[in-house]
Design a protein that fits this description.
- It comes from Triticum turgidum subsp. durum.
- Pfam families: BACK_BPM_SPOP, BTB.
- The protein has 252 residues and is mostly helical.
- Helix content is 52%, strand content 7%.
- The protein is built from 13 helices and 5 strands.
- Helix 5 packs across helix 7.
- The radius of gyration is 35 Å and the shape is elongated.
- The termini are far apart.
């Protein structure tokens, strides 16, 4: 038996047979031919992956947010300043436009003002705007210590930040803030949170507040709370839904 090793490449080249071929006349007189029959046995090995000829280099984690954070903190190359209640916040137009379609329109769109060196932001606290910039540059929220020391104050800032995220069409930030508020509903702040949610059409937060109030079994305490009059005046539909759910729970 004659054994011949052959390697075929599946790349750009197309291989047919083997360079060591036997002529027909030689085959006819060879011992490989029996009764005009030739038996060929093939052993094929298929390699699905190319052999590794070099050591793998570990890939470090992405550090783009670290660079953006430093860019913001050091104010390097800032080309716009926002004034919020007398406090100045330098920033970079291209970063803001990249993160918010509203900022993009205000800074680069047809409605932009000729002199965009300083932009005055109304109806927002400086701490909230700073938290907004923090998220724009780092894709994360500041720590509770950076916002406020106490939980109630933190939730209040998150509520304002939710409104700011809605104002600047930052969907990811909206979802994060709404999720935080849904997880931190309590008797003390549930009514004011419901007013906020209903006025700005945050449906998940509205439903969470209504479910929380209806499940308390202490509706009288809610009626006596500071924010109930505001809820009754500004959010009649939410109040109606609240009473419907509370009634169903009492009937069970």
């Amino acid at each position: 038996m004659r054994t011949v090793a052959a390697e075929f490449d599946s790349g750009d080249r197309t291989c047919f047979g083997h360079p060591e071929c036997m002529k027909k006349s030689k085959l006819e007189v060879s011992p490989y031919l029996h009764s005009d029959r030739l038996t060929i046995e093939c052993a094929i090995t298929i390699c699905t992956e190319a052999p590794k000829s070099f050591a793998e280099v570990p890939l470090p984690p992405s550090d783009i947010t670290d660079h953006l954070r430093k860019l913001w903190q050091r104010k390097e190359g800032s080309d716009v300043t926002f004034e919020v209640q007398g406090e100045a916040f330098p920033a970079h137009k291209i970063v803001l436009a990249m993160r918010s379609p509203v900022f993009k329109e205000e800074l680069y769109g047809a409605l932009r003002e000729n002199d965009m060196g300083c932009v005055i932001i109304g109806d927002m606290q400086p701490l909230v705007f700073e938290a907004l910039l923090h998220f724009i540059y780092t894709d994360s929220l500041p720590t509770m210590d950076d916002l406020y020391q106490y939980q109630d104050e933190y939730k209040e800032i998150i509520g304002h930040l939710l409104v700011a995220a809605d104002r600047y069409a930052m969907e990811r930030l909206k979802i994060i803030c709404e999720s935080i508020l849904c997880k931190n509903i309590d008797v003390k702040t549930v009514v004011t949170t419901l007013v906020l949610a209903d006025q700005h059409h945050y449906n998940k937060l509205t439903d969470a507040c209504i479910e929380f109030i209806a499940s308390l079994g202490k509706v009288d305490d809610i009626i006596a709370s500071h924010g109930y009059a505001e809820l009754k005046r500004t959010c009649p539909l939410a109040l109606l839904e609240l009473w419907k759910k509370a009634t169903r729970l009492y009937m069970i």
